[in-house]
């Protein structure tokens, strides 16, 4: 049983089998077609009418009609040659072979009209008629004349089909379409599953899909096995990366802690000085850089694991309130324009902590570099949420807009030292937006400084 299933699930065997299956069904249909046309009568064409008029004349001259009436009919040596059959006014069949009588009776029963001769094929017997024949004009007795001969029914059908190429094409399409559709579906469905698995990997989901190895054709199962092995390798690499970063973090934090402790002891013993403050500032900056680097790494590894659906106001409410308070302490105008009516009716599907951190990073970046004003504009377009945050700082050259979202990128080293940046904040924002099928970009602000726009897709119930 397993061996049979194994063979049929081979792509090569299945295509080969379906080709011959389609061809066989087409042949069977052609051979059986004559048995399904019992009610089809065909008109005689002009050249056929001329042919049978000559047959009537020949039958009369050769005394075939007279012999039939005398009860001594003679039949041609070639069974494919038409021979006459008479139907008397009383309905008696004269001149027919025993195996022909049933077909002749059926032909007469279904076609009693004498106005127009017709032809009909019964299995391997062709009957043509009726032709009116007056043998006794004095008594006005009319006989019905038919011509009967045996034929190769399949040959006739084939001739009919091949004489009409369009009919042949339609026939092939009708027979092959259901089989080819089933074949294409059996091939296409596993490929679509593989595509869905690849799309899941693209958004960070490294979960193994066992269906790729157990369903579908053998060749596609083998591809699925290779795909799952690749997932295991990627998961192992990322796990090793996480372990390495954790180890690096531990090894870096230990001397940093010692350095900060030594700085505190030195400050207590010698008092504060510019040198000690510089050492303490650089140590804190290095500690923050390690924290940001670990956050970026964990985000890349685990952002797909913890997601929930939450109202969009939760994304910015607390962050903007805190930012307003801080801006007021620094005499910075902080304007928020919320352009969404009933925002609590809209939702996001994602990691709330990471998304909130992304918004906070953009706001913090604006607070660092603004001179005196910050503007936040929140609006919706179709099924996307947009948060635009502007400042009136020095801004950036246009060719720097994309670069600031790369890890450790610094526009100006002096500016970075003044603000204490690590070059990882906006790269974390970009990574978060990407993981949530959104985007982030920078541009020229209406206030004169830098504008950062975050776009996130809204959750739509299905």
Automatic annotation (TrEMBL):
<dbReference type="Pfam" id="PF02518">
    <property type="entry name" value="HATPase_c"/>
</dbReference>
<dbReference type="InterPro" id="IPR050398">
    <property type="entry name" value="HssS/ArlS-like"/>
</dbReference>
<dbReference type="InterPro" id="IPR036097">
    <property type="entry name" value="HisK_dim/P_sf"/>
</dbReference>
<dbReference type="GO" id="GO:0000155">
    <property type="term" value="F:phosphorelay sensor kinase activity"/>
</dbReference>
<dbReference type="InterPro" id="IPR038515">
    <property type="entry name" value="CpxA_peri_sf"/>
</dbReference>
<dbReference type="InterPro" id="IPR036890">
    <property type="entry name" value="HATPase_C_sf"/>
</dbReference>
<dbReference type="GO" id="GO:0005886">
    <property type="term" value="C:plasma membrane"/>
</dbReference>
<protein>
    <recommendedName>
        <fullName>histidine kinase</fullName>
        <ecNumber>2.7.13.3</ecNumber>
    </recommendedName>
</protein>
<feature type="domain" description="Histidine kinase">
    <location>
        <begin position="247"/>
        <end position="460"/>
    </location>
</feature>
<keyword id="KW-1003">Cell membrane</keyword>
<keyword id="KW-0597">Phosphoprotein</keyword>
<dbReference type="GO" id="GO:0005524">
    <property type="term" value="F:ATP binding"/>
</dbReference>
<dbReference type="InterPro" id="IPR003594">
    <property type="entry name" value="HATPase_dom"/>
</dbReference>
<keyword id="KW-0812">Transmembrane</keyword>
<dbReference type="InterPro" id="IPR003660">
    <property type="entry name" value="HAMP_dom"/>
</dbReference>
<keyword id="KW-1133">Transmembrane helix</keyword>
<keyword id="KW-0418">Kinase</keyword>
<keyword id="KW-0472">Membrane</keyword>
<keyword id="KW-0808">Transferase</keyword>
<dbReference type="Pfam" id="PF00512">
    <property type="entry name" value="HisKA"/>
</dbReference>
<dbReference type="InterPro" id="IPR058125">
    <property type="entry name" value="CpxA"/>
</dbReference>
<dbReference type="InterPro" id="IPR003661">
    <property type="entry name" value="HisK_dim/P_dom"/>
</dbReference>
<dbReference type="InterPro" id="IPR005467">
    <property type="entry name" value="His_kinase_dom"/>
</dbReference>
<dbReference type="Pfam" id="PF00672">
    <property type="entry name" value="HAMP"/>
</dbReference>
<feature type="domain" description="HAMP">
    <location>
        <begin position="185"/>
        <end position="239"/>
    </location>
</feature>
<dbReference type="InterPro" id="IPR004358">
    <property type="entry name" value="Sig_transdc_His_kin-like_C"/>
</dbReference>
<feature type="transmembrane region" description="Helical">
    <location>
        <begin position="12"/>
        <end position="36"/>
    </location>
</feature>
<keyword id="KW-0902">Two-component regulatory system</keyword>
<feature type="transmembrane region" description="Helical">
    <location>
        <begin position="165"/>
        <end position="183"/>
    </location>
</feature>
<keyword id="KW-0547">Nucleotide-binding</keyword>
<keyword id="KW-0067">ATP-binding</keyword>
